[in-house]
Amino acid sequence: MKMNKYIDHTLLKADATQDKIQVLCEEAKKYDFASVCVNTYWVAYCAKLLNDSDVKVCTVVGFPLGAMSTKAKAFETSNAVADGAEEIDMVMNIGEMKAHHYDAVRDDVAAVVKAADGHCVKVILETCLLSEEEIVKACQLCVEAGATFVKTSTGFSTRGATPEDVKLMKDTVKDNCKVKAAGGVRCRADMDEMIAAGADRIGTSAGVQLMQNEASEGGY
């Protein structure tokens, strides 16, 4: 796969303006990225701007904490799909995962998968808050719930992706699910390391810099 198609070109900051979202989409079209990843408010706008391209619109659900009700996550998902989202990056219920309430975690993911109506669902585990054993179990639950991807991080917690986390996730899900690395992927070396560890997709705000093989001060 070509490098550009690994990248979800991302802008999730609270102060993102329409002008910045427009630039994001223009950059995504120029480099033919896999998707743009934006908050749900911007989905319809991005779908309109990207209508004449094969760049997908990806959005986040239950972001960034994952502690919303399952019904709220499902509604947010169905609404985003109606607005034109083709990929959903949901945050797992991290508290329930830490409490070992596995049925609740699985049901939460399954509800979003159902609401996504066949569209790609990536489940953000927030690996920096989990032990290795919890990461493994979370991956297993996501596979059982029908997720398309497991994803490392929101980029809004204590750290982002590590190659070690990516490898552990890939070793766990094998061919049953894909892996997305997000958070802190700022240069080509970072990206190459994540892909070597098993990442199938990269979430980053530094997509343009990555394509230009330049380091970025930004990140995700």
Question: Can you describe what's shown?
Answer:
The chain is α/β, with parallel strands linked by helices and 220 residues long. The chain has a single domain (11-211), classed as TIM Barrel (Alpha-Beta Barrel), CATH 3.20.20.70. It is 43% helix and 17% strand. It has helices at 18-31, 43-49, 70-83, 94-98, 102-116, 132-145, 163-173, 188-197, 207-211, and strands at 7-11, 35-38, 56-61, 87-91, 120-124, 149-151, 178-182, 201-204. An eight-stranded parallel β-barrel has the order 1-2-3-4-5-6-7-8, surrounded by seven helices. Mean pLDDT is 96; it is low at 215-220.
Q: TL;DR of this structure?
A:
Helix content is 43%, strand content 17%. By secondary structure, the protein is an alpha/beta fold.
Question: What topology does this entry show?
Answer:
Elements: E1 7-11, H1 18-31, E2 35-38, H2 43-49, E3 56-61, H3 70-83, E4 87-91, H4 94-98, H5 102-116, E5 120-124, H6 132-145, E6 149-151, H7 163-173, E7 178-182, H8 188-197, E8 201-204, H9 207-211
Parallel strand pairs: 1-2, 1-8, 2-3, 3-4, 4-5, 5-6, 6-7, 7-8
Helix pairs in contact: 3-5, 5-6, 6-7, 7-8
Query: Rg from C-alpha positions?
Result: 16 Å
CATH architecture annotation name: Alpha-Beta Barrel
- The ordered string of helix (H) and strand (E) elements is EHEHEHEHHEHEHEHEH
CATH class: Alpha Beta
What is the typical, i.e. mean, pLDDT? 96
Gross geometry:
globular
CATH superfamily: Aldolase class I
Largest pleated sheet: 8 strands, parallel, barrel
Distance between the termini: 22 Å
